[in-house]
Design goal:
This protein has helices at 44-54, 101-104; strands at residues 15-18, 24-28, 33-40, 66-78, 81-86, 106-109, 114-115. By secondary structure, the protein is mainly β.
């Protein structure tokens, strides 16, 4: 007798995740809601990791980040893929530029997401 057992995660724990490129943050909230924030080139995570590698005293200063999109909406999970559907505020279409990538939604493989520690877990 042959048996096939497949694993497909149907839920994500609430919390903040980062994508494999370390530039996109996804916060999973209750009621299948999410918040999304993306950076170009480098993010707070990549800067923090780079500073750890430098192994020299930290300099004072501010780092500026280039945004590459932000939004919120509802998510679903299908066959191990996280699908983000963004809320589009139709009343602001005439006055604000809309990122057309968000109209179709975005998707990410769950296995490629890394859960970041939450503020409560930091000592």
């Amino acid at each position: 007798m042959l048996s096939f057992s497949g694993f497909s995660q149907e839920k994500l724990e609430l919390g903040r995740y980062i994508t494999s490129d370390k530039l996109k943050y996804i916060t999973i909230k209750s009621n299948y809601e999410f918040e999304y924030l993306a950076y170009k080139g480098y993010s707070p995570y990549t800067i923090k990791e780079e500073r750890k590698k430098e192994n020299k005293p930290q300099m004072c200063g501010t780092v500026g980040y280039w945004g590459d999109g932000r939004g919120k909406g509802t998510y679903s999970i299908e066959d191990g893929i996280l699908i983000l559907k963004f809320k589009i505020n139709n009343s602001t279409i005439a006055s604000k530029k809309i990122d057309t990538r968000f109209l179709k939604g975005l998707s990410f493989e769950i296995l490629e997401l890394e859960k970041l520690e939450t503020e409560n877990q930091k000592g």
